[in-house]
Amino acid sequence: MDFYSNNYDLLTNSERVLLHYILDHIDTIKNMTSQKLATQCGVSKTVVINMCQKLGFEGYNDLRFFLKNQDKEKEPLESTETFEFRMIDIVTQSIQVNKHEVLEKIAKMIIRSNCIYLIARGTSKPIASYLNHILLTLNIKCINIPDLNLMQLVAQKMTHDEVLMAISLSGRTPLIIETAKAVKAYGNTLISLTSFSDNPLNHYSDLQLFCSSESNDTKINDVNIRIGMFAVIDLLVHYIKIELSKK
Length: 247
Fold this sequence. Notes:
Layout: H1 13-24, H2 26-29, H3 34-41, H4 45-54, H5 60-69, H6 80-96, H7 100-112, E1 115-120, H8 125-137, E2 142-144, H9 148-157, E3 162-167, H10 174-185, E4 189-195, H11 200-204, E5 207-211, H12 227-245
Parallel strand pairs: 1-2, 1-3, 3-4, 4-5
Helix pairs in contact: 1-4, 3-4, 6-12, 7-12, 8-12, 9-10
């Protein structure tokens, strides 16, 4: 079970103790009230609620519902051949959903910016790290922001000639959304990379990149295939190289 992995670093020490207790007593938790759980762990009921929300649940009851449904029989895995065809489809669709003019505009924007900041959470972090490495290799100033506390600070301090790119499969990660709001509040430029869906992050972004994904639910058991996101990044880098070659 890895429903907690995406936002574990958001938790306070008290919330982590609480989470560890839950993971060690899953069968008991399914039938325990939030108040009883709080008393058992020596924390307040507010701590229980905050922890649940940081992990992506609406509240404690939502977490309990998830735990109860973990016992349902899982579907058998597909064949390797079927999985391979599915990956090819995801890459193909990810390339097709992005318009040439948008990719070209983003490439020019990245090259002209004084600095591009990258933010991502959970399983999307490697995509940001990958793009960060390539841009630095191309001598484009780029800063990957893994620190949660720095995301809001960067959003507030960045200048109009800098760009922030937010990478989120769901486009609904709370911290990413709050950072996006701050970027727009200060009148700065935001680029997003999300699944091809209607989501809050795209509403705040100036330019959008999309990837194909069979599911954009990253709240629990986040094992969604992200090969589409990597394909889009490689495609964007190709457009950047074209623009650099014109100089």
